[in-house]
């Protein structure tokens, strides 16, 4: 094989995703992987839209390939992981006062471990967000790399 030529396996979305996650310290790598697994299980029909942007690494869970249809996003930076409700956050009822943020649409929660997603009050938020958005298709969604920024903030402290 010629130098610099990538095989189809090296270009696969999953392989690219693993390279993005590897930029983080071990603790955040494990957290991202665990939260992704939990969201993948909970939102099996959703596509995973991946962005390795300047500020954050993001995986959006979406019934379509349109970012504006995203239900929930996993957002990671050097300081940890959050779960965002980017387009319906302000419409969610939050009796437990978990949601943070003051944007016009987005709200988020900090995620300390994958077990955070199993807490009843967090599950209520996820279920409410799913109801507010387009229905999820059956089956398994695709992993789609949407954008990668050449310049990024450090992913480790």
Your description of this structure?
The model is unreliable at 1-9 (pLDDT under 50). 25% of the residues lie in helices and 22% in strands. It starts with 12 loop residues before the first helix and ends in a 9-residue tail after the last strand. It has a six-stranded mixed beta sheet. The protein has three helices and six strands. With 157 residues, it is an alpha+beta fold. It is globular. The longest helix has 17 residues, at 26-42.
Short description:
Helix content is 25%, strand content 22%. With 157 residues, the chain is α+β, with helices and mostly antiparallel strands.
Number of helices: 3
Shape: globular
Structural class designation: alpha+beta
Q: Span from first to last CA? A: 37 Å
Question: What's the gyration radius in Å?
Answer: 16 Å
Main sheet: strand order? 5-4-3-2-1-6
Task: Give the low-pLDDT segments.
Answer: 1-9
How do the helices and strands follow one another from N- to C-terminus?
A: HHEEEEEHE
Strand portion, in percent?
15-25%
Give the overall pLDDT as a whole number.
90
Helix content: 10-25%
Q: Tell me the number of strands.
A: 6
List its salient traits:
disordered N terminus, alpha+beta, 3 helices, 25% helix, single chain, 157 residues, 6-stranded mixed sheet
How is this fold's topology laid out?
Elements: H1 13-21, H2 26-42, E1 47-52, E2 57-62, E3 72-77, E4 80-85, E5 107-111, H3 120-132, E6 143-148
Parallel strand pairs: 1-6
Antiparallel strand pairs: 1-2, 2-3, 3-4, 4-5
